Amino acid sequence: MSELNLTSTIPTNQSIDVPLLGLGVWKSRPKECYDAVKSALEFGYRHIDTAAIYGNEADVGRALKESGIKRSDIFLVTKLWNADQGYDEAQKAIDISLKKLGTDYVDMYLIHFPVSGKRNDSWRALEKIKGEGKARSIGVSNFMVPHLEELLKETDIIPAMNQVEYHPFLQDLELKEYCIKKGIVLEAYSPLAHGQKLEDERITNLAKKYHKSNAQILIRWSLQNGNVVIPKSKNPIRIKENADVFDFVLSPDDMKEIHSWNENFRTCWDPTTVD
């Protein structure tokens, strides 16, 4: 992990490589989202993560189109929302998302949440969507080990990726190890814990040691931990800063120290409560 850069990728079990660092656009309003994606692409990002429920797919699509960058050079992710889950509904939902994004395929299509009674039917739809070329790869988001175990009993196509909240204060080692065992890439959303732990003295001390920002320490930890990371920001300065994490390496001792910080601190929804 010491030779990483902004173009580094990780292979998946579906023969597609995912850029390790991407831009998340959750809670980015249309104009903010357009500007954020445009800035990220100018800084060298090639991985953009959106979702139907975010309401900004059209703005992501416009920024991609106006960037002048070849579509094949960008890794584009969107997600199937809860209200659209089910076999028939999911197939309609991807067409709506593709129209808004202004593209005929996404690089990764994820089930956004493990909705009880519908997630397996949704997965069957994603398999069809992948077969039709509307998604180059398919995966899940917010799936815990029991959800993955249930799914893998019903399919031969293992999710390429599982996007979950993951940061030093929320380290689900059982989930991490399960994903590694099954060849599922773990992608960390909210890698900065929504800023709620950003001023922790322990992070500040490491930031001073490495002459980096607190956010950069957390992002670098996730990257060295083998995760794909999608920090969210609407601020061009922060977007650029978040990508400036490839000129230093956290020492093994510091990585070990950060691994000890887990306190099961969850800032988003809790999928462990879903049957």
TrEMBL record:
Active site residues per record: Y54 (proton donor)
Enzyme class name: oxidoreductase
Amino-acid positions noted as binding substrate in the UniProt annotation, renumbered to this chain: H112
Gene Ontology MF annotations: 2,5-didehydrogluconate reductase activity
Tree of life domain: Bacteria
EC number: 1.1.1.274
UniProt signal peptide: none
Site (Lowers pKa of active site Tyr): K79
Coiled coil residues, start to end: none
Pfam families associated with the record: Aldo_ket_red
Residues annotated as domain NADP-dependent oxidoreductase: 22-262
Keywords annotated in UniProt: NADP, Oxidoreductase
SUPFAM superfamilies assigned: NAD(P)-linked oxidoreductase
Family, per entry: Belongs to the aldo/keto reductase family.
Protein name: 2,5-diketo-D-gluconic acid reductase A
